[in-house]
């Protein structure tokens, strides 16, 4: 059976994937895709993921897996007992999955509109791009205000951390207003203090532990 592989880049959803691998006790082959050099458009990477998006995980079976939420669920299933998500069939898991999908379908796209506004308009003018970016920021304000109301503290489900907390903190870190909310400052500190999550997060960012 082949090793897991993770195509990654700093500043992308690959952060939470790196944390998930560390939490699950899985050591993948890590392949850096330098987006500053446009490597996500290189033919060899497009052969892996024609959508030119990061992260990408290759399963030991050779199956190519994209979409961060799907990758996290797959890693959780491959590491029964690691506790990335609450137990199958539990109410806590249902709530966790609700917010995982909410983040994937609302918070992540809002961040993309903010930082890559040109992808979301056919108008090449600066005013059009600025309007798209502003709409993304406003959506992020609303999304994280809503999520903040749901945080039991310090984690989404109270005292029990899940990979959804890491996903939420990662995306919140891309939005200044979210970073300023007390619940997300508390969440970030709690995650950094975690014996596995904190070191994995800092290693991904290239910071010494």
Query: What is the percentage of strand-forming residues?
Result: 5-15%
Helix-strand topology string: EHEHEEHHHHHHH
Structural class: alpha+beta
Biggest sheet overview: 4 strands, mixed
Could you tell me how far the N terminus lies from the C terminus, measured between alpha carbons in angstroms?
32 Å
Number of strands: 4
Total count of helical runs of at least 4 residues = 9
Shape designation? globular
The overall pLDDT average reads 96
Task: Please estimate the helix content.
Answer: 40-55%
* Low-confidence sequence ranges: none
How much is the radius of gyration in Å? 17 Å
Task: Give the SSE map.
Blueprint (H helix, E strand, L loop, with lengths): L4 E4 L5 H11 L4 E4 L10 H6 L7 E3 L5 E2 L2 H11 L12 H25 L10 H25 L12 H10 L3 H5 L1 H12 L3 H8 L5
Parallel strand pairs: 1-2
Antiparallel strand pairs: 1-3, 3-4
Helix pairs in contact: 1-3, 1-6, 1-9, 4-5, 4-6, 6-8
How would you characterize this protein structure?
By secondary structure, the protein is α+β, with helices and mostly antiparallel strands. It contains nine helices and four strands, in the order E-H-E-H-E-E-H-H-H-H-H-H-H. A four-stranded mixed β-sheet has the order 2-1-3-4. A hairpin with a 5-residue loop joins strand 3 and strand 4. The chain starts with a strand and ends in a 5-residue tail after the last helix.
Which structural traits does this protein have?
single chain; 209 residues; alpha+beta; four-stranded mixed sheet; 9 helices; 4 strands; 6% strand; globular
């Amino acid at each position: 059976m082949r090793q897991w592989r993770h195509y990654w880049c700093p500043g992308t959803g690959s952060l939470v994937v790196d944390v998930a691998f560390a939490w699950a006790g899985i050591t993948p082959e890590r392949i850096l895709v330098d987006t500053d050099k446009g490597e996500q458009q290189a033919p060899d990477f497009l052969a892996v993921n024609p959508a030119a998006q990061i992260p990408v995980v290759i399963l030991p079976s050779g199956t190519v897996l994209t979409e961060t939420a799907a990758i996290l669920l797959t890693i959780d299933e491959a590491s029964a007992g690691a506790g990335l998500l609450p137990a199958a069939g539990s109410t806590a898991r249902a709530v966790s999955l609700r917010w995982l999908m909410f983040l994937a379908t609302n918070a992540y796209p809002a961040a993309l509109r903010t930082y890559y506004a040109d992808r979301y308009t056919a108008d090449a003018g600066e005013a059009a791009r600025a309007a798209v970016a502003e709409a993304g920021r406003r959506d992020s304000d609303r999304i994280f205000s809503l999520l903040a109301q749901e945080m039991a503290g310090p984690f989404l489900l109270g005292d029990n951390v899940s990979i959804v907390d890491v996903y939420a903190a990662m995306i919140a870190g891309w939005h200044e207003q979210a970073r300023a909310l007390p619940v997300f400052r508390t969440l970030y500190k709690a995650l950094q203090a975690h014996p596995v999550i904190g070191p994995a997060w800092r290693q991904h960012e290239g910071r010494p532990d």
